[in-house]
Amino acid sequence: MNVYQSGGTNTTQIGYTNKNHQLNTGHKNASGTDHRQVVYRMLCLNIHCGHFYGANGTDVFQRKCPACQGGTDGIAF
Ligand SMILES: [Zn+2]
Question: From ligand 1's centre to the CA of 10, what distance in Å?
């Protein structure tokens, strides 16, 4: 499957945006770095940023942008 898909929880749905303005754009079944997690592609919605990076499903709800908010480095997605 080469199409980005939603996960099974509220925060892993495509279109979910967390309090830090980080948008979940879905996963392609790539393995994350946390136990039994897949990698979600996150997009930073802050003006002048637009950074894409990978995050474990468990981190989506609290993730900060590694480019403009001092969040930890993204993982491969
Ligand atoms: Zn950013």
Answer: 22
Distance from the CA of 43 to the center of ligand 1, in angstroms?
8
In tens digits, what is the pLDDT along the chain, a chain of 77 residues? Answer: 579 999 999 999 999 999 999 999 999 999 999 999 999 999 999 999 999 999 999 999 999 999 999 999 999 99
Could you give the CA distance from residue 72 to residue 74 in angstroms, rounded to a whole number?
6
The span from the first CA to the last CA of the chain, in angstroms, equals 14
Distance in Å, CA 26 to ligand 1 centroid: 17
Residue type, position 10, single letter: N
